[in-house]
Amino acid sequence: MNDKSVSIDRRPWTKRPACCESRDPCIEVRDLSVSYGGKLALRDVTLAIPLGCITAVVGPSGCGKSTFVGTLNRMTDLVDGCRVEGRVELGGHDILNGRTDLIGLRRRVGMIFQNPNPFPLSIRRSLTLPLRRHGVRNRRILDGKVEGILRRVGLWDEVKDRLDHPALDLSGGQQQRLCLARALVLEPQVLLLDEPCSALDPIAGGVVEDLILSLRGRYTVVIVTHNLAQARRVADDVAVFWVRAGAGAMIEHGPVESVFDAPRSEWTAAYVQGVHG
Amino acid sequence: MPDPSVSPLPSLSEHRVDWPDRAVASLVWLVALLVTGSLLWIVGDLARHGAPELSWSFLTDSPRDAGRAGGILPVVVSTLMILGICLAVSLPMDVGTAIFLAEFTRTGGLLAHFVRRSLDVLAGVPSIVFGLFGNAFFSIYLGMGFSILSGGLTLACMVLPILIRSTEEGFRSVPDEYRKAAAALGLSQPATLWQILLPVATPGLVVGLILGVGRALAETAALLFTSGYVARMPSSVLDSGRTLSIHIYDLAMNVPGGESNAYTTALVLITLLLMINVLTFWIADRWLHRGITHR
Ligand SMILES: Nc1ncnc2c1ncn2[C@@H]1O[C@H](COP(=O)(O)OP(=O)(O)OP(=O)(O)O)[C@@H](O)[C@H]1O
Ligand SMILES: [Mg+2]
């Protein structure tokens, strides 16, 4: 067990800003295995996700990327018959532990999904509902936070005149930014993004991607993406997942340029070159 | 070379009539007209026979001469009381059971399966059976006698299956994305249910409610055994009371010369039903928009 201790790459990287220089782990995953109804979907994943960095999870369809990020905020609990084994440590606490406060966990670890999923509420209520539920009641503070977070995601000028209109009237890209705002307004430490741009057109996707880049340093980000160019643009670290012996596994993990330019595994090499493995 | 086994592309200038297409379209229109037509005919017939006797005093007087003369105020009051009790009891149980079936036991489980089957069976049980049950259980065993309370509770048992299945459908139609988004934001289950799922599930609830109210207002058999048919003004829910449907039945079948007042009462009943439907839609609409307008 100990020989698999989490190794943290400390090579400095030119593009990396000081904020994620320290490479202190934010989340440490050890021997994580997940099965659905007895069928193994993810086997023995061990990696450290550095604080304030952006870690991209890439790999072919069905290799367990969504499953992996789902364990980090225990969304896997919603799936009947899903069993998770191993350890996922956040701030020294094993969140897979049965006594974990799920509401607190999900406040610390926000999540964005592939398809924008705003609630059938007004734009304002989409943001105040989670805030109220987490104890913010003062109207002035709420209004201030709504404006602040909408500015943060670049939505304020587009929606300031229709805050009380349905969020579902927004365009797909705006909806996704609203979802990002909804997650960020709770001031999480970690943000999980499961293919956040793949349902958007390239321009809207580019806006969201820029936003994600702006999160570096302030949040620890884990982003699942099918777009290797995107992974290269935004990520500090890359984890490559693959299906091996019928279950997903992590076959490579490290700083983005070493994974892309000097992959250790032949599958990774083929994958990053776009060769069908 | 075009493939000879495929007929050549038709010319665009040559308009051809697709007869099967037309026939189906006409049939659908015909059926729709028939349905609306018969509804209008019934309402028209009621209005023609009932409207002449309809007056303000008909609504505010007590029946006299076994209902041949006078009004129907106590009957309207009893009807509304019975309906009120029925809804006050069945709505919370409806929402609770539907949430249990749709949200807590999504994938099944023995209990959920059993509950669902029982509801389907109950939904098909003739109302007279509910009447016998209500009489034995509420009126005699629980000692409520022939009373508005006993009738209201019996009706609640009767409409619950319809209400629950329809509300459950409402909850099932809520996209899973909302549940995932709510969970990912750390919203508690009660908050998720109340703030997000219930408003989205409301249309299902409304359909059930309108069917249920319709069935309750139409009921006679189950109420003859439970709330009775005393036409006096009730002074409490423990008094016996006569509903509009029973009044119509009584006037039409047991009171010679009561037909015209039977028609007028039927007109009142239909109007009441329409009013309740409109009100239900209005409230549901406000409730649905609460999420949008409320800050
Ligand atoms: N709810 C579920 N029930 C049963 N099996 C599941 C469930 N979700 C995922 N799986 C299985 O787990 C494996 C990994 O799925 P996962 O969704 O994590 O893959 P992915 O890498 O995110 O794929 P994609 O790129 O297509 O999103 C797959 O074999 C899938 O069939
Ligand atoms: Mg996925």
Overview of the molecule:
The complex is a heterodimer of chains A (277) and B (295). Chain A has 277 residues and is of the alpha/beta class. Chain A has two domains: 18-116 and 188-272, P-loop containing nucleotide triphosphate hydrolases (Rossmann fold); 119-169, no CATH class. Chain A has helices at residues 65-72, 102-108, 123-133, 139-152, 156-159, 172-184, 202-214, 228-234, 256-261, 266-272, and strands at residues 25-36, 39-50, 54-58, 82-90, 93-94, 109-112, 190-194, 220-224, 237-244, 247-255. In chain A, the strands form two sheets. A six-stranded mixed β-sheet of chain A has the order 6-7-8-3-9-10, with helices on both faces. In chain A, helix 6 packs parallel to helix 7 (202-214). The two termini of chain A are 31 Å apart. In chain A, 46% of the residues are buried. The model of chain A is unreliable at 1-16 (pLDDT under 50). Chain B has 295 residues and is mainly α. Chain B folds into two domains: 14-53; 56-294, MetI-like fold (Orthogonal Bundle). Chain B contains eleven helices and two strands, in the order ααββααααααααα. A two-stranded antiparallel sheet of chain B has the order 1-2. The longest helix of chain B has 35 residues, at 259-293. The model of chain B has no long low-confidence stretch (mean pLDDT 89). Bound molecules: adenosine-5'-triphosphate (ATP) and magnesium ion (MG). Magnesium ion is lined by residues 65-66, 194 of chain A. Adenosine-5'-triphosphate is lined by residues 36, 41, 61-67, 79, 248 of chain A.
